[in-house]
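User: Okay, second chain of the day. Same drill as before: sequence in, structure tokens out.
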Amino acid sequence: MKSSPIRSKQKLSPAAKKKKAARDLAYAKTPARRAKKAQNQREDRRDGTVGDGLDRHHTKSGATKRISVKNNRGFYGRGTKIEKHA
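Assistant: Same drill. Structure tokens below.
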């Protein structure tokens, strides 16, 4: 079975890998990300949907909808460059 291109690792130097890990962790711990993660966990426990392969997409109104992991990345497949202009 071929490995998915999404799961392939970036080819980074050890120094760059360390910096990226620090950036990713800092982003994951922002108040907005922590609130979204907590909301996901609460709703998944309530709905019993843990491990069903779907993500919760957080809308601007604060509501969530269940969509595939693929569609929850990169602005529904359109890329992140245009996301800020939409």
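The chain has a mean pLDDT of 79.

User: Thanks, on to the next one.
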